[in-house]
Each structure stands twice: as C-alpha cells, then as structure tokens.
Amino acid sequence: MRLLFCSKSFSADLSWDHLARILPGHEIITCTRDAVAEHLRGVDIIIPFAAPITRALIERGSFGLIHEFAAGLDSVDVEAATEAGIWVARLPAATTGNADSVAEMALLHMLLLTRRWKETQIALAERRLYEPAGSTLMGKTACLIGMGGLGTAIARRLAALDMHLLGLRKRPEQGGPKNIPFQRVVGMDALHSVLPEADYVVLSLPATSETHHIINKEALASMKPGAFLINVGRGTLVDPQALQEALSSGHLAGAGLDVFWEEPVDPRHPIFQENVTATPHIGGITDTSFWMRARTFAANVERYVQGQTPLYAVNQPIHPRGPIA
Description:
- By secondary structure, the protein is α/β, with parallel strands linked by helices.
- 27% of the residues lie in helices and 17% in strands.
C-alpha cells in the first residue's frame, strides 16, 4: 500500500522513514502540507499531520483511509470523506503517549511562569543572586478546561504537586477522572463563575465552533487578577488581541503558549513583549509519543488492508472504498 504523509517528517530528528520497519511491504511517501494535491496518484492512505484535507482534495483522490497521526481532526472534512466512502481515523491522546507528552509541556510552562523564568535569565546575566523570588504550584488552584485524555494527564500531574483542582467539561455529570481529587467539576456554562477562583487556567480543548475564542475579553476579565493562562489545546481557543490586552494591562500575570492563532506564529508579534513563555507547538513531539503512536497506527493500517473497520474511526461510510488493487 502507498502511504502519503503530508509533512516531510514528524520532527527534525524523527523522519517517517523510521516507520518502515513496522510497516513492511508498504511504501512511504512524503510531501509538504501545501503540495498534497500533487502527490495523490496511487495513494491508499493519507496521513494529514494537520494538512488541510478538503472536499476538493478528497474528490481528486482514490484513497480509502484518512488517518491522522494525532487525536485532532481539525483539518479534515469528515463529512466529505464519509460521503466519498473514506474512513477517517485518529490516534487517541490518552493511549499513545501524546497526552502525557503535552501534559508535561503544560507543566513546564506553569513552572517557568511561576518561577519568573524571564527575570531569572536577566538576573543571571547581571550576576545577581537570590532573585527574583518565585512562587510554587503547591497550594494554588488550577482550573482545567477540557477533561479528556489530555486534561486527565494534566490533572494527574498537578494533583501530585498538591494543587487544588477545578474542572470544566461538556458533560459534568461524569465528574472528575478516577482517583484524582477535584474540588468540583462543572459544565462549560459555568466558565465565568469558576474562572475567578483559579490561579492557573489550563486549556486542553479541541478546536470546534463551540470552543472558538472561548477565552475572549469577557472570560479574561473574569479571571483572578495576577492569574496565568496556559494553552496546550488549540490556538483558536483564545482571542489573541484580548489576551495581549489582558497581559499589557497587568490583569494577567503571564501566559504559557504551545499553540497559536496562526501557525507558524510570527515571532515579532507584540504579544511576545509581554510575560509570555512560548514553544512552537511541540507538546506532543517526543520520541515516546512518536513510537507509541506508530505502533497503534501500524496496527490500524493492517486492519484496513484486511478489510476490517479501523480502530478509532470517527465515521462510518455506507460504501467504504477498499484498498487500491
């Protein structure tokens, strides 16, 4: 089978060619995200890696499976794929090392902001000792917005640091994750009533029409003065102009961002003049996550070859396309 990865590599250190040993007999080809249409000939499976898989592109190809190498399917027209008989599958964050990797990134941003990292670098350069005085996560309150696999992984780590946890989720009746102590879990409609209680607000939601700019001017105004915002979900969750204003006014003490309103983000954007720690959407880009995802992905490729329903499929085509003969 011919597999098209719509990115030249997973990262600079991990190329898709590394997967050859667990995908014997299959051809791996790659392209850039803006050149997918030029590489569709003979392709059985497309791996978007966030490349746009639009209706027009779907209609041009003869592939039968779109399989993201991550949990999010923001860039895939699932409706068009289903109509065309194409399976769409993903890799759940909770079981592929992705959630754990991103959770560690969220923790990194929280620690950098808490210990005033930018100021420590200035003090170091100026040979000043014992300053600035930082704070701790211990005893502080974190509000986790989104409690799927990623939110659960973050909660587990923050609970171990003796933080108080508040949770927001679409179905609050499900409560908090098992064996993780939450002060309470509420629905998304309670957002503005919970935000004033949190020292840290951590976003781990997917990008949908419902979550677009869920953190807007009003939500930021509801946050506790001096609080921190951490976004490891999707860039569209936050209104960047409103965030910049909240930071420049001093209402927020800082923000930690691994995802942005546009990617790649312009490093000259004025928001980076504020107390912002930023990483280039690398939360899930770890060797552990790569190989755990790879094993699940390879198993699903074989299911598709055998004519079986892919695991973690998000659709059910009435007349599925089979592999190209």
